[in-house]
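Practice problem: predict the structure.
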Amino acid sequence: MQTLFPIRMVELEVPAQLSVLRQVSAWLKLHATEWRVSETLIAHIDLCLNEVVANCVAHGGPAVTDRPLTLQLSMASSHDQTLVTLSIADSGRAFDPTSVAPKARAVSLSDATPGGLGLVMMRDSASRLAYRHSSSRNHIDILFQFDHARSSSTARLALRDVSAERRLKNLSWVPLFKDAPLLALEAVLQTCELLEVPANMPLLIPGQSNRNVYIALSGTVVAHLGYLAVCMRR
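Answer:
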């Protein structure tokens, strides 16, 4: 990359709580839009931002609330490239996401294991992840780099492919996605697992924790609600 022009930078401190997710997303969108970052790239950055904040709160331990989360968004450009960096610092237990091996994609429900897809989505969305632990704080930098010479239809991170757009339109029948931003939805769906489920295989079991969302693309799903059984077909 050539010498970068002066960096634009903003910073925000928020409590380590899930209730700040809307606030930090609005903060990101406000400044990134002012800097003329593409909507698609903002969706990718927001996906990573929400994933890191949620993980800090859920897995950081008691110490994570000792100090606020520190968020920093910066952008630097040269004549031919732009680099957008999202940096997040927290006081939770030390965790280096760059040291975690990529999760293998499951081909069947029996092979699937809960969790781990958030990091997959981050790696797919960003150009690079960097981590350091200093002053009893985790510091993660999420970098998004793209060339000006490549058009917005082909640049790696700014890009919405026509086939992906068709897939999103085909999901309009799912009530869960009714008001979801299409760009954010696309970023998530790109890393979802497509599973073939054997007949009579239970997806959800009473008393068992679940962090997954299942969408039946074909076949029949039966939901047992107390003494009732509700049958849904696709």
